[in-house]
Every structure is written in C-alpha cells, then in structure tokens.
Amino acid sequence: MLHEKELHVFSNYSQMNINSISYYEINHNDISDVVKIHLRSFSGFFLSELGIKNLEIFYKSLLLDKKTVFIGCKQHNQLLGFLVANEFSAGLYKRIFIKKFLFFLPHLLIRFIKKPSLLFRMITSYNSSSKILTPNNCVASLLSICIDPKQSGKGIGKELISQLDIRLKDRNISSYFLTTDAKNNDYVNQFYIKQNFCQYSQYLQGSRLMNVYIKSLQ
Ligand SMILES: CC(C)(COP(=O)(O)OP(=O)(O)OC[C@H]1O[C@@H](n2cnc3c(N)ncnc32)[C@H](O)[C@@H]1OP(=O)(O)O)[C@@H](O)C(=O)NCCC(=O)NCCS
Asked: How many A from CA of 187 to the centre of ligand 1?
C-alpha cells in the first residue's frame, strides 16, 4: 500500500505537504533565504567567498533559466533547505556570467580588491570544469543542495533528491551528475551513495580532489 507521503508526490509534486513540511518550486522571493542557507552551509567555499550580492545574482539567474529545477523545503513559512539542478550544465556558469556580467562586475571588483586570491580561485574553478568526465549522454547536473545545518539529519536532503528525480524524469532526463570533494567529506559522500549515486570519475580542482557521481533514473 502506498504511504500517504508517496501518494502526495504522485498526485501533485509542487505542493507536497506532510506534517506542515512542504516541497515546492523556489521563486524569486525565496532567493534571500536561499543565500542565507548557502552561506551557513558552505562557509569558506568559493561561491560563499564571493559574498551575498554575487550569490543573489547567481541564484536569481539560475532561477530564470528554463532548464533549471529549483526545489525548496519549508515549514511554517521558513525555508529549511533547497536544491538546484540544471538539465544542461555544460558551460552554464559561463553563460550566466556573460549574461549578468554588468550586474556581477561591481560586486566582484569589491571582493577581488578585498581578497585578490579569489580571482585566482575563480579562474581555477572555471578551468577545472572542463575536466569533469561524465558519460556522453549525462549532461544534467545537481549544482547545489544544502539543508540548514540545524535541520540536518532529518531526511530533508533525501526527500529533496527524490523530488528532483521525479521532476527530471518528467523532463525525460535519464541520468544526472554532481561533483563533491573526495577528501574530508565523508558525510556528504555517504549521503550520495545512500541516495543511489555511483562514483564515475575524479578530477582535480586546483589542489582539491573531486568525486564525480552519476545517478541513473531508468
Ligand atoms: C549533505 C546534506 C545535503 C544531507 O542532507 P540531510 O538532510 O542532512 O540528510 P538526510 O537526513 O536526508 O539523510 C539521508 C540519508 O543519508 C544518511 N546519512 C546522513 N549522514 C550520514 C553520514 N554521516 N554517514 C552515513 N550516512 C549518512 C542518513 O542516515 C539517511 O539515511 P537513511 O535514509 O538510511 O536513514 C546536508 O547535510 C547538507 O546540506 N550539508 C551541507 C551542504 C553540503 O555539503 N552539500 C553537498 C554539497 S556537494
């Protein structure tokens, strides 16, 4: 017999509501909360170091892309976590950067002046994206998933992934990939393995060894 939660997923995935927790499509008004959770979850990471304004422009640009899937989890009107994926991730960051160059420029200049090493990290990150090895037909990618650290371990990440799988299948996507740090990152690697991702390859992003995971939706 189907669980009540599963019945909701099949009937209307845009507003699943269990115990007042709902999974829904992120909209423009959520972006400032998305950025807050991102900053709490990814402290010290490159995108976080670019600051609030650049992150806002980045996530708003992703939201505008028709190939983006952007799912949030909220309870009592508070965002607990989100994920964002894109059906065609090749060159995505470059496309966003070029499209929104004039919006990014003043905020990037401020960050680069304050911390010049960020420019080097940006170039490293950009160059290493071409080293990601995936099967030829696997072009969709999970770009970011983060749960408010206070809400971690409650099954929200797992449910967000299963919501993503449903949406990608609806878009006739048969597989997708993601990248994550290979070292000092057991929690996240174990999380993905539990969600049926298989490690496909590795690459170096500067001195960081990165794992590439694939998930088949067939
Ligand atoms: C990684 C992250 C998305 C996981 O989300 P979460 O909501 O905390 O995870 P869940 O509660 O849904 O856990 C799902 C499963 O993973 C398992 N899991 C969680 N932590 C684990 C660990 N340290 N070791 C092994 N399994 C673990 C859970 O036990 C659960 O398994 P189950 O279904 O058998 O019970 C979340 O912790 C996060 O946002 N981290 C910070 C941001 C980040 O690093 N994102 C990934 C970037 S690549």
From this structure: 6
Q: Which atom of ligand 1 is nearest to the CA of 186?
A: 23
Long-range contacts for 84-87 (Cβ within 8 Å, ≥24 apart)? 84/26, 84/59, 84/142, 84/143, 84/144, 84/145, 85/140, 85/141, 85/142, 85/143, 85/164, 85/168, 85/176, 86/62, 86/140, 86/141, 86/143, 87/139, 87/140, 87/168, 87/171, 87/173
Residues in the ligand 1 pocket, defined by CB under 6 Å: 41, 145-147, 152-158, 180, 187-188, 190-191, 194
For the segment 124-130, the average pLDDT, to the nearest whole number, is: 86
Query: How far is ligand 1, taken at its centre, from the CA of residue 118, in Å?
Result: 29
Name residue 89's amino acid. Answer: S
d(CA 7, CA 179): 31
Per-residue model confidence as pLDDT tens digits over 54-113: 999 999 999 999 999 999 999 999 999 999 999 999 999 999 999 999 999 999 999 999
Atom from ligand 1 closest to the CA of residue 187:
23
Q: Please state, for a pLDDT cut of 70, what percent of the chain lies above it.
A: 91
Q: Which fold has domain 15-216?
A: Aminopeptidase (3.40.630)
What is the whole-number distance in angstroms between the Cα of residue 152 and the centre of ligand 1?
A: 7
pTM of the model: 0.89
